[in-house]
Amino acid sequence: DTAVSQTPKYLVTQMGNDKSIKCEQNLGHDTMYWYKQDSKKFLKIMFSYNNKELIINETVPNRFSPKSPDKAHLNLHINSLELGDSAVYFCASSPERGGRETQYFGPGTRLLVL
Amino acid sequence: GQNIDQPTEMTATEGAIVQINCTYQTSGFNGLFWYQQHAGEAPTFLSYNVLDGLEEKGRFSSFLSRSKGYSYLLLKELQMKDSASYLCAVRDRGNFNKFYFGSGTKLNVKP
């Protein structure tokens, strides 16, 4: 059973297009995240939702809009894609705030904007 | 601001011991995590430290000194499959859901 799943795994698209990435977790966790990992391997948090409520919104262009229809799903929609958006986007989930419980990451979505 | 530093790359020999260091300067601290990330895959959790000292887990150990803003990951009896990137991450004290990651240390294990 896949704990955190993302679709699609690969996404190649043209500049200016709009695209969505979907994430689902079957771990019963309350908190979900979107991270961006660039070519230098920095993993940077973008958004976090707790029980469908947005709790972290880092300095991200407003072309990026997350949506959480329920606590098991967190989608990311990107408008007007730019070359600099090319990266690997990881979804993650965690069971609680604090403590030694960590985040569980999805397999990543490799986005290439041409 | 947050600043987390790790060496970019290290090479070690199969069967040896390697220590990967991480230094951090953060405005708040509520735990330090180490993750392993194989090429093209997702990060997976290795260890967690919130108090000073050493946490041991099989071949992997992690150490923390909060006063020095320093941690290391120790890998013993290296195996070829340990070739991966190792990411250090600090959890924010004010917001438990916020994690700050270093850029990772790529470990190459050679025969």
What does the secondary structure layout of this molecule look like, with pairings?
The complex is a heterodimer of chains A (114) and B (111).
Chain A (H helix, E strand, L loop, with lengths): L3 E4 L2 E4 L5 E7 L5 E7 L5 E8 L2 E5 L6 E7 L2 E6 L8 E8 L9 E2 L3 E5 L1
Parallel strand pairs in A: 2-11
Antiparallel strand pairs in A: 1-3, 3-8, 4-5, 4-9, 5-6, 7-8, 9-10, 9-11
Chain B lengths: L2 E3 L3 E5 L4 E8 L6 E6 L6 E6 L3 E5 L2 E6 L4 E6 L8 E8 L7 E3 L3 E6 L1
Parallel strand pairs in B: 2-11
Antiparallel strand pairs in B: 1-3, 3-8, 4-5, 4-9, 6-7, 7-8, 9-10, 9-11
List keywords for this structure.
heterodimer, A: 114 residues, mainly beta, 7-stranded mixed sheet, 4-stranded antiparallel sheet, 55% strand, B: 111 residues, 5-stranded antiparallel sheet, 56% strand, globular
Short description:
The complex is a heterodimer of chains A (114) and B (111). By secondary structure, chain A is mostly beta strands. Chain A is built from no helices and 11 strands.
Overview of the structural elements:
Helix content of chain A is 0%, strand content 55%. Chain A is mostly beta strands. In chain A, the strands form 2 sheets. In chain A, strands 2, 4, 5, 6, 9, 10 and 11 form a 7-stranded mixed beta sheet that branches. In chain A, strands 1-3-8-7 form a 4-stranded antiparallel beta sheet, with no helix packed on it. Chain A starts with a strand and ends with a strand. The mean pLDDT of chain A is 90. Chain B is mainly beta. Classes of the chains: A mainly beta (114), B mainly beta (111). The A-B interface holds A 4, 31, 33, 40-45, 48, 50, 55-56, 90, 94, 97-98, 100, 102-108 and B 30-31, 33, 41-45, 48, 50, 85, 87, 89, 91, 95-101, 103-104.
